[in-house]
Amino acid sequence: MRDILDLDRFPLERPHSSEWQALVDRCKADLKAEGMFNLDGLMLPEVAARAVDAMSAPFATDAFLHERMHNIYFKHIDGLPEDHPALRQFQTSNRTLCADQIAGSPLLRLYEWPEFATFLAATMEMPELHVMDDPLARVNVMSYQEGQALNWHFDRSEFTTTLLLQAPDQGGGFEYRTDLRSEEDPNYDGVAKLLNGENPASKVITLSPGTLNVFKGKNTAHRVTPVSGDKERVISVFSFYENPGVVFSDAERIGFYGRAS
Ligand SMILES: O=C(O)CCC(=O)C(=O)O
Ligand SMILES: [Fe+2]
Questions:
Q1: Count of structural domains within the chain
Q2: Is the CB of 237 under 6 A from ligand 1?
Q3: In terms of residue numbers, what domain contains 186?
Q4: CATH number at residue 142
Q5: Which of 49, 56, 68, 250 sits a CA distance of 20 to 30 A from 231?
Q6: Rounded to whole angstroms, what are the CA distances from 16 to 48, 124, 127, 183, 241?
């Protein structure tokens, strides 16, 4: 993996060594304090740049244009009227490539490397993490051109794992508000305030190419701000589950990717 990852700074190949444990401890502390950790330059920037070049043809011809209006929950909430300010609708627009469209990519090599899941599970304090069996959903790559954005949402899974491949010239920041809600308290008023732009606690970070970003997406409201300029924002998302063999239903694949297979 040394040809694609900076294993000198991030010794993922030596699970449970003292250097590996120190890195895991740092990530756990960042997750606790910030709801997020970053490994800046985990993938070598030139490898990330080559991966972007290799995907430019499939992005131009085969990618799914994901464009829709949605609220922060991606669904109706029982007990909340449709005009409640926490259910305000926003537009999301990006292009998505699925795992079956990036054969040979270093992203799939990283995803399938067992030490990657071992490391992530340790940072998230989970006994094990497993790759998906879903041929489309395992790894997705999203591209945002000028004006495109991923709007405010909460994720379905507790943690989300991304790796930035190309940063745009302007915009395309990752804006987040950690712990805006909890299992006990949906905090609809706080959500409404955030969507109304009244949100002093939200932060925006711009990731650099090659950076692994792990955040607690389930209760952290987050969005990608609109990209501007000629350079697209390109980011990959890795899906891991606590159980092996997870696949989406055909209906879920059609909803996310416009096709079942
Ligand atoms: O593109 C990003 O930085 C975040 C992606 C994200 O929030 C998601 O895939 O759910
Ligand atoms: Fe998300």
A1: 1
A2: yes
A3: 18-257
A4: 2.60.120.620
A5: 68
A6: 27, 15, 14, 32, 21
Establish if 163 belongs to a structural domain. yes
Q: Say if 39 falls within a structural domain.
A: yes
Ligand 1 within 6 A of CB of 86? no
Beta strands at 233-238 and 139-144: parallel, antiparallel or unpaired: antiparallel
Distance CA 111, CA 161 (A): 11
The answer to the question of residue 72 being in a domain is: yes
Over residues 244-254, the pLDDT tens digits come to 999 999 999 99
pLDDT tens digit sequence for 197-240: 998 889 999 999 999 999 999 999 999 999 999 999 999 999 99
Of the candidates 74, 48, 33, the residue with the CA atom closest to the CA atom of residue 179: 33
Contact 116, 30 (CB under 8 A): no
Q: Is residue 9 part of a domain?
A: no
Please report the atom of ligand 1 found closest to the CA of residue 213.
3
pLDDT digits (tens, 9 = 90+) for 56-67: 999 999 999 999
The amino acid present at 224, given as its one-letter code, is V
